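Fold it.
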Amino acid sequence: MRTITVIGIGMGSPEHLTLEAIAAIRAADAFLMIEKGTAADELVAIRETVLDRVLDGRSPAVVRIANPKRDAADPDYRAGVDRWHAARVALYSDAIAGLPDHAHGAFLVWGDPAFYDSTIRILDQAATGGMAFTLKVIPGISAPQALAAAHGIPLNRIGEAIHVTTGRRLAAGLPHDLDSTVVMLDDGSALEALNPDGLAIWWGAYLGTPDEVLVAGPLDEVKADILRLRREKRAAKGWIMDTYLLRRTAG
C-alpha cells in the first residue's frame, strides 16, 4: 500500500524544519506539489529550495498538480469551497494513483497542516472515495508561532485564552470575552474595516523568508502603515501572506 505523508515545513526558511520533517522528506519517493500558475508559484520554488537543502543531491520524483481555481466571488462561500475541494480530491486521487504501489509520497505544507490548510481534509475525502493509502502527518512551525517569535512576544497574557480566526470571521467582530486574537487569511479588508480604538497589533508578512516585514504598535497609529505596506508588497511580488495578533489594551 502507498504511504502519503503530509509534512509541515514551516514558514519558508529551511531552518524551520524539524528533525522529524527532515527524516520524512528523506524517506519520500515522490513529492506532490500544487502549482497555481501565478506569481504565488514562488511558494513552489521555496519548497524546491527546502528539498535541495535536505536531500543532498538526491532527486526523487516531483508530481506537479495544477491547482483548480475557486470562484472567490461566489456568494455561497461554503458551497464554493466544497466544489473547489471536490476538484482537488479528484486531482489528488489521480496523482496518488500514478505512484507505484508501495511508494512513499509526500505533500509539503506551508506552516503546519493543522492551521487553515485543507490537505488532510482532501486526502481524507480521497480515502473515503476509495483511494487506498496510509496517511501520516508531520507538524511544522505555524504562522502564529513564527509571528510570535519574530516579534519576541507570547501570544497570550498569563492564564488567558487565544482566539485564532480568519479575516472573513473577523469581519463579524472580535470576541467580547477574549483579549488576544490571531488573524490569518485576511485579504486586508477585515483589518481595514476594523475599529482600531483600544487595540494593539503585531503584524508580519512573508514570515520566515528573506522578505519578512514586521510592524507593531497601537492599531490607531500603525494601521495605515500596515495597509500601505500590504498593498506595496503585494503589488511588487504578486502575492502576500500575512498574519497578525490583535490585543485589547484597555479593560
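Residues 143-248 form a domain with the Methyltransferase, Cobalt-precorrin-4 Transmethylase; Domain 2 fold (CATH 3.30.950.10).
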